[in-house]
Amino acid sequence: MAFYYGKHPAVRELADFDLVVVDPDSDFTPVHYPRSRARWIAYVSVGEVTPNRGYYDLFPKSWILGDDPDWNSEIIDQTSPAWPAYFAEQVVRPLWNRGYRGFFLDTLDSWRKVVTDPQEQERQQLGLVRLIVTLHRKFPQAQIILNRGFELLPKVHSLVNAVVVESVFQGWNQKDKIYYAVSAQDYPVAIGSDRCHSPSVSLARHRS
Questions:
Q1: What pLDDT is recorded for position 202?
Q2: Angle at alpha carbon of residue 56, lines to 51 and 60, rounded to 5°
Q3: Domain that holds residue 184
Q4: CA–CA separation, 178 vs 159, rounded Å?
Q5: Alpha-carbon distances of 195 from 154, 156, 170, 205, rounded to whole Å
Q6: CB neighbours of 48 closer than 8 A, spacing ≥ 6?
Q7: Mean pLDDT by 10 residues, the chain (208 residues)
Q8: Domain CATH code at residue 106
Q9: What is the CB neighbour count within 10 angstroms for residue 70?
Q10: d(CA 21, CA 170)
Q11: How many independent structural domains does the chain possess?
């Protein structure tokens, strides 16, 4: 499994991997490479939206919980009833039509930055569960890969193909643009092996 978030994916080299996660805004379109044996996975941000995304202008502003200034993004309210269907049709469907056959779901915990009430936190998690269920129903052949999201697994593990665990040994501070060492006491939290009901992959990377 490979991750490549650059603007011009090296298709020939990346095709040696079984699964390749790329940023679909790189203009890479898998249907243009029908002979590639790799399964191309689209990076999609579930918890945040940025102005550079093609669907941003149509995004209802009432679904915004707050801002993440470090990433110049807006945090999405996962409890909005129409959000799962919108995400599936407006965000994922165009990527499926371009040939992506899997989706790497990132920023699953962004709501934690602005939601502190335990009951509201549970509602955010249930909203994410509905979103994943909706994706599986609309795209049953798609690979669904989570970036962490451990608390969701008891309810969606049968729908998820894998879990990625980033920043196990090193994390990225976007505000200061530096890497930092993850403390030993946080390793179990980062790895979360006892909560993973699906195959897991550990890695260190940051959004670029």
A1: 45
A2: 125
A3: 2-203
A4: 35
A5: 8, 12, 21, 22
A6: 68, 71, 73, 74, 75, 76, 107, 110
A7: 90 92 93 92 96 85 92 93 97 97 97 96 98 98 95 95 79 64 60 52 44
A8: 3.20.20.70
A9: 12
A10: 20
A11: 1
